[in-house]
């Protein structure tokens, strides 16, 4: 009996999304490197530079996958928690990087994080927010677990502002990427969902508004690779003396 690959859709049922990532965990990083034409490495460097991790900080790296970005953060001396809601990704991350000091892997749902209030100096999520079933709840949860004055970094696919470049990008995603994915991915249909989720995702300023509505301040973004990806940043408001605990 043949096994039908798990394929998420825009309803983003958590079990289906998690199962889809379980299936691609072993080859996930190699596939992304090929399909992004190596740009994913530059995006990870941009995230690390924006975080500028320091020894002694606590950093929550959500949608961490196999921990490719988490490793770089941990090598700064920061204490890094790599969280992902795919057990397959967590298992692969522990297999590859379980011996790295200051790095731990935790199964974590972004809409119900298993952490106390005010735990982290930085909360970051790369290429995972658009897979969450309730984005606004996830943004609120990230604010809850960040310390007052703590920072948020979101790296996510976005929308090129140049019409000409946007057309070229759409051609690659719609015509080239699916063909290549059939040869390099263990679940090519997962990358059909990738295209759907990117098309459905809000543009840069719309995401800024959602971050702000979740209670974050100092919200800003900058484009990477001509707007294929955008790096959003924000700050959790510092609590005034005598004020009630943030919820």
TrEMBL record:
<comment type="function">
    <text>Methyltransferase required for the conversion of demethylmenaquinol (DMKH2) to menaquinol (MKH2).</text>
</comment>
<keyword id="KW-0474">Menaquinone biosynthesis</keyword>
<dbReference type="GO" id="GO:0032259">
    <property type="term" value="P:methylation"/>
</dbReference>
<dbReference type="Pfam" id="PF01209">
    <property type="entry name" value="Ubie_methyltran"/>
</dbReference>
<feature type="binding site">
    <location>
        <begin position="109"/>
        <end position="110"/>
    </location>
    <ligand>
        <name>S-adenosyl-L-methionine</name>
    </ligand>
</feature>
<dbReference type="GO" id="GO:0043770">
    <property type="term" value="F:demethylmenaquinone methyltransferase activity"/>
</dbReference>
<comment type="pathway">
    <text>Quinol/quinone metabolism; menaquinone biosynthesis; menaquinol from 1,4-dihydroxy-2-naphthoate: step 2/2.</text>
</comment>
<dbReference type="InterPro" id="IPR004033">
    <property type="entry name" value="UbiE/COQ5_MeTrFase"/>
</dbReference>
<comment type="similarity">
    <text>Belongs to the class I-like SAM-binding methyltransferase superfamily. MenG/UbiE family.</text>
</comment>
<keyword id="KW-0949">S-adenosyl-L-methionine</keyword>
<keyword id="KW-0489">Methyltransferase</keyword>
<feature type="binding site">
    <location>
        <position position="84"/>
    </location>
    <ligand>
        <name>S-adenosyl-L-methionine</name>
    </ligand>
</feature>
<keyword id="KW-0808">Transferase</keyword>
<feature type="binding site">
    <location>
        <position position="126"/>
    </location>
    <ligand>
        <name>S-adenosyl-L-methionine</name>
    </ligand>
</feature>
<protein>
    <recommendedName>
        <fullName>Demethylmenaquinone methyltransferase</fullName>
        <ecNumber>2.1.1.163</ecNumber>
    </recommendedName>
</protein>
<dbReference type="InterPro" id="IPR029063">
    <property type="entry name" value="SAM-dependent_MTases_sf"/>
</dbReference>
<feature type="binding site">
    <location>
        <position position="66"/>
    </location>
    <ligand>
        <name>S-adenosyl-L-methionine</name>
    </ligand>
</feature>
<dbReference type="InterPro" id="IPR023576">
    <property type="entry name" value="UbiE/COQ5_MeTrFase_CS"/>
</dbReference>
């Amino acid at each position: 009996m043949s096994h039908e690959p798990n394929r998420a859709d825009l309803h983003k049922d958590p079990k289906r999304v998690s199962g889809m990532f379980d299936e691609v965990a072993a080859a996930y990083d190699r596939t992304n490197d090929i399909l992004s034409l190596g740009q994913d490495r530059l995006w990870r460097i941009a995230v690390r530079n924006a975080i500028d991790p320091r020894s002694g900080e606590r950093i929550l790296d959500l949608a961490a996958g196999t921990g490719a970005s988490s490793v770089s953060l941990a090598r700064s001396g920061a204490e890094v928690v790599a969280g992902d809601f795919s057990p397959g990704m967590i298992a692969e991350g522990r297999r590859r990087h379980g011996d790295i000091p200051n790095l731990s892997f935790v199964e974590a749902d972004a809409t119900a994080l298993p952490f106390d209030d005010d735990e982290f100096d930085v909360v970051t999520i790369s290429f995972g927010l658009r897979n969450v079933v309730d984005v606004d709840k996830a943004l609120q949860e990230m604010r809850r677990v960040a310390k007052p004055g703590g920072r948020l970094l979101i790296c996510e696919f976005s929308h090129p502002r140049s019409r000409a470049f946007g057309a070229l990008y759409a051609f690659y995603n719609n015509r080239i990427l699916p063909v290549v994915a059939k040869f390099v991915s263990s679940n090519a249909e997962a990358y059909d969902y990738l295209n759907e989720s990117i098309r459905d995702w809000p543009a840069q300023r719309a995401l800024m508004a959602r971050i702000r509505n979740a209670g974050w301040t100092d919200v800003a973004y900058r484009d990477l690779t001509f707007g294929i990806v955008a790096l959003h940043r924000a700050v959790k408001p510092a609590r005034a003396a005598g004020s009630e605990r943030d919820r």
